[in-house]
């Protein structure tokens, strides 16, 4: 799916960054006192530093029209000295989001830049940073659990939820997914291995074919070894490990072990 405009991505990055900023400002006891369950060992402080650093890193790639990898210390060094107070973190996030969206808008979607996966344009980073920021806004909502961004109110807009699933499927179909687990690991592909994901609140569906290499996917509907039904937002959160197949919002029919293995392997890039 390639229907989301560059401008929509940029606006969503800003909006989700604002949600994270609001959570940081309102955190009871300060952001350093609020653990983030989805990111073990992190509090809202580390989460905010990570998001602000990631935005600055992606902004540098786009702004400089980088043609090769750019050091990502800002993404990884969340425990090094940096902004800690709510006001300082709020400013850190605001400046980082503005740098990123400014660089993306100035470049336009077709500007050639280095990307971590096939793509090679600024649009790749607009899309990637939209979904990255959205998931971490969810983390902040889950961590604070109150106020305007409480868990029960968190949702992903339909066009962006569909796009998040499409992006995940594209990453999951990369050849290195099959090699990520190393020798001796349980095989991901094989006869009869198919998955169907259905967003129960829309008509969106994804069919993943693991019967052979390379892994492929489509928006088709068919009988599958395992079928997953859930609201679109919950499907996004499931793929990113913020929901589990055991959650009440998730319905799983068929081979749960295959689903678990696919979620683990297709999400290898989250751990890189």
TrEMBL record:
Superkingdom of origin organism: Bacteria
InterPro entries, alphabetized: DinB/YfiT-like, Maleyloyr_isom, MDMPI_C-term_domain, MDMPI_metal-binding
Family annotation (Pfam families): MDMPI_C, MDMPI_N
Domain Mycothiol-dependent maleylpyruvate isomerase metal-binding: residue ranges: 16-141
MF terms (GO), sorted A to Z: isomerase activity
Residue ranges occupied by any MDMPI C-terminal domain in the UniProt entry: 162-259
Protein name listed in UniProt: Maleylpyruvate isomerase family mycothiol-dependent enzyme
Keywords: Isomerase
């Amino acid at each position: 799916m390639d229907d989301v405009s560059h401008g929509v991505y940029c606006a969503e990055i800003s909006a989700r960054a604002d949600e994270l900023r609001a959570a940081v400002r309102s955190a009871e006891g300060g952001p350093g006192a609020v653990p983030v369950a989805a990111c073990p060992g992190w509090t809202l402080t580390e989460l905010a530093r990570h998001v602000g650093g990631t935005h600055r890193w992606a902004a540098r790639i786009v702004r400089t029209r980088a043609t090769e990898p750019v050091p990502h210390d800002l993404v990884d060094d969340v425990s090094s000295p940096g902004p800690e107070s709510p006001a300082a973190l709020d400013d850190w996030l605001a400046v980082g989001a503005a740098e990123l969206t400014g660089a993306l808008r100035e470049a336009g979607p077709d500007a050639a830049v280095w990307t971590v996966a096939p793509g090679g344009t600024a649009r790749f980073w607009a899309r990637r940073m939209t979904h990255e920021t959205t998931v971490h806004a969810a983390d902040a909502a889950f961590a604070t659990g109150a106020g305007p961004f409480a868990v029960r109110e968190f949702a992903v807009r339909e066009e962006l939820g569909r796009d998040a699933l499409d992006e995940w499927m594209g990453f999951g179909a990369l050849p290195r997914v099959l090699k990520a687990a190393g020798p001796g690991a349980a095989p991901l592909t094989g006869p009869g291995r198919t998955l169907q994901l259905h967003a129960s609140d829309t008509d969106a569906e994804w069919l993943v074919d693991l019967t052979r290499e390379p892994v492929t996917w489509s928006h088709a509907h068919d009988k599958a070894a395992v079928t997953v039904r859930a609201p679109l937002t919950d499907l996004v959160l499931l793929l990113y490990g913020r929901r589990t197949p055991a959650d009440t919002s998730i319905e799983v029919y068929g081979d749960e072990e295959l689903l678990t293995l696919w979620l683990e392997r297709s999400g290898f890039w989250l751990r890189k």
